[in-house]
Amino acid sequence: MSVLRGSAALQEDLGNVSAKDHKKLILYILDSTALIAGQTDFSRKEFATTPSVLSEVMHDESVKNVVEVAVDCGQLEVSSPSEDNIREVERIAASTGDRIKLSRTDIDILALALEKSKAGIDVVIISDDYSIQNLARRMGIKTVGIIHPGIRKQITWVAYCPVCRSEYGVSNLNVCTRCGVELKRRPAKL
């Protein structure tokens, strides 16, 4: 297993989320890092992930074996989110400036969490990705980190050009329209 924030710390975070929710069913949505880290005890909780996450991790033989057993035993649900939920996540991500930092897999994870949440299931995403955590918080979905404890506050990002100083506000652009340089992001001033 990898040297991480520690299995005990992750289990404590998971336990804290469970305790706060008074024994309600909680579904933990796993990103690639959660599966690669191997810090997940499939026998103790309800877990789900997306096919796109599996495609990222199945090249690792040890992860593949654990995942296949968990899926076969019904301890890990693998499902794709609806296109409507994917579009909703993309819309919200565009409004926070996170869209350019999210991969298709990240969007799938968030969309699956949103879909399950809309179905009345308490959802927690297990991920160290700050863009996932930021967007999840915006959508009212809890997150737990694996290596890092997670974001402290929600951020809306603005794009700017480090060369000509053009500002683009919340934007999905990657390149400055004035000088062609790759844009950078910074937190918006509130």
Please describe what this structure looks like:
With 190 residues, this protein is of the alpha/beta class. It has 2 domains: 7-144, Rossmann fold (3-Layer(aba) Sandwich), CATH 3.40.50; 157-187, no CATH class. The chain is built from 7 helices and 8 strands. It has a 5-stranded parallel β-sheet, with helices on both faces. Helix 2 links the parallel strand 1 and strand 2. Helix 5 (83-96) crosses helix 6. The longest helix has 15 residues, at 104-118. The relative contact order is 0.15.
Strand content: 15-25%
Order of helices and strands: HEHEHHEHHEHEEEE
Radius of gyration: 18 Å
Helix content percent band:
40-55%
CATH level 1 class label of the largest domain: Alpha Beta
Summarize the topology.
Elements: H1 7-20, E1 26-30, H2 32-37, E2 46-49, H3 51-57, H4 61-72, E3 76-78, H5 83-96, H6 104-118, E4 122-126, H7 130-138, E5 142-144, E6 157-160, E7 167-169, E8 184-187
Helix pairs in contact: 5-6
Keywords:
five-stranded parallel beta sheet; three-stranded antiparallel beta sheet; 190 residues; Rossmann fold; alpha/beta; disordered N terminus; 41% helix
Gist?
With 190 residues, the chain is α/β, with parallel strands linked by helices.
